[in-house]
Amino acid sequence: MKYIKRDSIKNYFPLPNEIFCLSLIYGELAVYSYLMYCENRKTFKCYPSYKTIGNAIGMSKNTVRKYVKSLEEKQLISTQPTTIIKKDGHKQNGSLLYTILPIEEAVNYYYEQQMIKLEEDIQQKRIQNKLKNSSLKRPKKVV
Predict the structure, then answer these.
(1) 77 - beta bridge partners?
(2) Could you read off the pLDDT of 98-119 as tens digits, one per residue?
(3) Is 10 helix (H, G, I), strand (E, B) or coil?
(4) Mind giving me the DSSP string for 90-103?
(5) What one-character DSSP code corresponds to residue 5?
(6) Number of domains the chain contains
(7) What residues make up the domain containing 98?
């Protein structure tokens, strides 16, 4: 059986290895992957519509919108609204302009958020222990 040689660059797009360290859910990963597929490698920008993204990855526009917002919150992308001028001269909202942010920023943010959550959990545990210990020391009422 003869195998066709694949070009290692043509018809492929890179995903940073760190993307798998961020606990993304499948929808976030699918939207991020599609944006990486569309991005201009020199400017790190692209502008597919929610509908275009949804059609490509099998999601509704509203679901895509939800995952875009989540990717923004996780500092993987930033978005800017755009406007277009129609033939009749009227302005109309265009697609969002997406910028793929450096993965290091998202990784740092992710670990900062993990540390904050860990500190909150530790504080909560301390409070629970204090409450537990204070209830053990309290004398019981004799009736």
Answers:
(1) 100
(2) 999 999 999 999 999 999 999 9
(3) coil
(4) -EEE-PPEEEEPPH
(5) P
(6) 1
(7) 17-137
